[in-house]
């Protein structure tokens, strides 16, 4: 079973509900979206897989090539394996095969758009971190895909939380649409407001915007936290 992977590394989860836990990150190559602010856009087409100090493999890598490295890393107690990218749900067969070869819980970091692919792997996924994408950052509206994605995760009673990356440029009308979407699904879902790390012409939200938008969100969603990308602050990948 093969898949294109740009890097595998052990680090501290820097975002969202599980910030601070130790995770083994598997970053898949390729994405079905093109977020203007993507901080991994340089790895979306990587032809090599970086196993930190152990090896540089050529993509697509065979699962059996990387299992020894994964198992070596997991000799240190890890909370979970973070499947990220790129968009990990483009590689469902590989994810299901990986699940056969590890007892470590699988954590899905996803753009929340590929609901048919989620259905193929969801029984092997323990935790879902799902982005709701703001249309100005991706040039399209994905509300229906996000709605179906959330509905499937709720139906399967998965541990799921939602992240919205907010920039100075994010439109309040889009933010309100995201809040309405979430409120109609579950007003108790955990919503993370993730301030944009400036890149690609996008700016961090102003301090006032962060507080005002959290207050706005708290009028519709009961659990709203503001958490920046903390791994950058501690020099972690
Ligand atoms: C690189 S993406 C990969 C997983 C999946 N494709 C997604 O977008 O959720 C992982 C997380 O990083 C966030 N992210 C990417 N670039 C960012 C930036 N410049 N500032 C803040 N968060 C960013 C995404 O919004 C997403 O929550
Ligand atoms: N430390 C660390 N935490 C993360 N949380 C989500 C990440 C991602 O790129 O998916 C990420 C990442 O790239 N590094
Ligand atoms: S969906 Fe995720 S990986 Fe794809 S472009 Fe957006 S932030 Fe980057
Ligand atoms: Mg990252």
Q: Give the assembly state of these chains.
A: single chain
Helical fraction: 25-40%
**Into how many domains do the coordinates divide?**
1
Q: What do we call the CATH homologous superfamily?
A: Aldolase class I
Function: Catalyzes the complex heterocyclic radical-mediated conversion of 6-carboxy-5,6,7,8-tetrahydropterin (CPH4) to 7-carboxy-7-deazaguanine (CDG), a step common to the biosynthetic pathways of all 7-deazapurine-containing compounds.
InterPro entries: 7-CO-7-deazaguanine_synth-like, Aldolase_TIM, rSAM, rSAM_sf
Cofactor: S-adenosyl-L-methionine; [4Fe-4S] cluster; Mg(2+)
Family: Belongs to the radical SAM superfamily. 7-carboxy-7-deazaguanine synthase family.
Core attributes:
TIM Barrel; 24% strand; 12 strands; binds the ligand Nc1nc2[nH]cc(C(=O)O)c2c(=O)[nH]1; 237 residues; globular; two-stranded antiparallel sheet; eight-stranded mixed sheet; 7 helices; alpha/beta; binds S-adenosylmethionine; binds magnesium ion; 30% helix; binds iron/sulfur cluster
């Amino acid at each position: 079973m093969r898949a294109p992977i740009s890097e595998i590394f052990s680090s501290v989860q820097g975002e969202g509900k599980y910030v601070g836990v130790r995770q083994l990150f598997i970053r898949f190559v390729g994405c079905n979206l093109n977020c203007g602010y993507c901080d991994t856009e340089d790895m979306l087409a990587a032809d090599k897989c970086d196993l930190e100090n152990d090896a540089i493999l050529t993509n697509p890598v065979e699962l059996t090539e990387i299992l020894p490295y994964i198992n070596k890393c997991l000799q240190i107690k890890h909370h979970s394996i973070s499947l990220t990218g790129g968009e990990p749900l483009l590689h469902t067969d590989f994810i299901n095969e990986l699940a056969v070869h590890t007892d470590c819980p699988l954590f899905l970091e996803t753009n929340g758009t590929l609901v048919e692919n989620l259905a193929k792997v969801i029984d092997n996924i323990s935790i879902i971190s799902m982005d709701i994408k703001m249309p100005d950052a991706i040039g399209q509206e994905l509300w229906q895909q996000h709605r179906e994605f959330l509905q499937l995760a709720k139906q399967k009673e998965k541990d799921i939380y939602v992240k919205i990356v907010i920039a100075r440029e994010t439109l309040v009308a889009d933010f309100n649409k995201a809040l309405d979407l979430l409120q109609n699904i579950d007003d108790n879902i955990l919503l993370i407001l993730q301030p944009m790390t400036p890149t690609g012409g996008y700016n961090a939200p102003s301090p006032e915007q962060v507080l005002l938008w959290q207050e706005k969100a708290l009028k519709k969603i009961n659990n709203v936290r503001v958490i920046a990308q903390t791994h950058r602050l501690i020099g972690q990948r």
